[in-house]
User: What shape does this take?
Amino acid sequence: MISPSFDALVCDLDGVIYRGARAIPGAVEAIDRLRGRGIKILFCTNNSNSTIQQYMGKLQGLGLDVSEDEVLTSAKVTAGVLQARGFAGKTAIVVGGAGLREALGEVCISVKDDPQVTVADVVVVGFDLGFTYEAMRRAAVAVRRGAALVATNDDASFPAEEELWPGAGAILSSIETACGVRAEVMGKPHPPMMEAAARRLEGSRAIAVVGDRPDTDLAGGLARGWRTILVLSGVTTTAQAERLENVPDLVIGSIADLA
Assistant: This one.
């Protein structure tokens, strides 16, 4: 077991706490042990598909007692940034699930789902299991007609229960290619998500980030001077970890080895 030297942990979900519907073996017990040592936990995910309540329900169903302020999603961060920029009361075309739509609605951004509508103030792209050519066409046309292009994250894949599935980044790439515009990305490792996580953990003396993606979870933590912990229970293999240019502070099989 590896003893932590931090008092707050930014903890990814997919590939760290669970894969699909199944908990990573020992993950729930590890979080309980860390909390028992007084370590503050912030569950921080780039996956914008689910709502905060849905994430809470899933974690609680796995045996973790979680409060709303302990869950941060790229959807919430995206909505918060757009609100701060004056998009409240404006319109959006959304490629994404319930989590993204709810977050935008909470800041009074009107989501236009009519397939005939191809004009909006902003196109917001996240993970969408129902993504279609029509959705790509509509988003690209709206951007070419003046809409801003924003993405919750650009993860190329995510760890489903048995294998890696295409992620929001794969969807985003098709839209960027179609419209010729690069999106502004809000999720890890980009500043909006990392700054939001830091605000949630204000007052902590030493923060660490644990994740399965060196290019998102760990890169975001490294940029803020946090300790970085890579787990091999998600998208990164042992061979890939050995070739990393920016070596994490810790490389472990899963979060069960931490605590």
Q: What stands out?
A: The radius of gyration is 18 Å. The domain at 8-46+188-257 is CATH 3.40.50.1000 (Rossmann fold). The chain has two domains: 8-46+188-257, 75-185. The first helix runs from residue 27 to 36.
